[in-house]
Amino acid sequence: EKARIKFQPAEKTYTPDFYLPQYDFYIETKGYFTGSDRTKHLWIKEQHPEIDLRFVFMRASTKLSKKSKTTYAAWCEKHGFKWAEGFVPREWLQ
Asked: What is the pLDDT of residues 26-78, one digit of tens each?
């Protein structure tokens, strides 16, 4: 986790879980995907559209909250993030 990505509103730094330089994308692994995590990643996407950030969830079918019908996977699709469940898909590495 050597890469650092700055983002606003108040300048903060985000440290991605993994960077694969040979494929030029970042991977964020998540078991629990909090509201503040989601907000942070939307800010990063807006402020750094050149960065390819992808998610690997422990369980992508988990709902955002008890009251929500939206899953982690659906949230990613809605906001244009690639996602996977359990492991990095082989097709990401080609």
From this structure: 999 999 999 999 999 999 999 999 999 999 999 999 999 999 999 999 999 99
C-alpha distances out from residue 89 to 68, 85, 93, Å: 27, 9, 7
Is 48 within 8 Å of 5 (Cβ atoms)? Answer: yes
Closest CA to 33 of 8, 74, 63, 69: 63
Rounded CA Rg of the chain: 13
Q: How far is CA 71 from CA 11, 18, 24, 75, 78, in A?
A: 29, 23, 27, 6, 10
E-strand spans in 1-94?
A: 5-7, 12-14, 18-20, 25-30, 53-57, 83-85
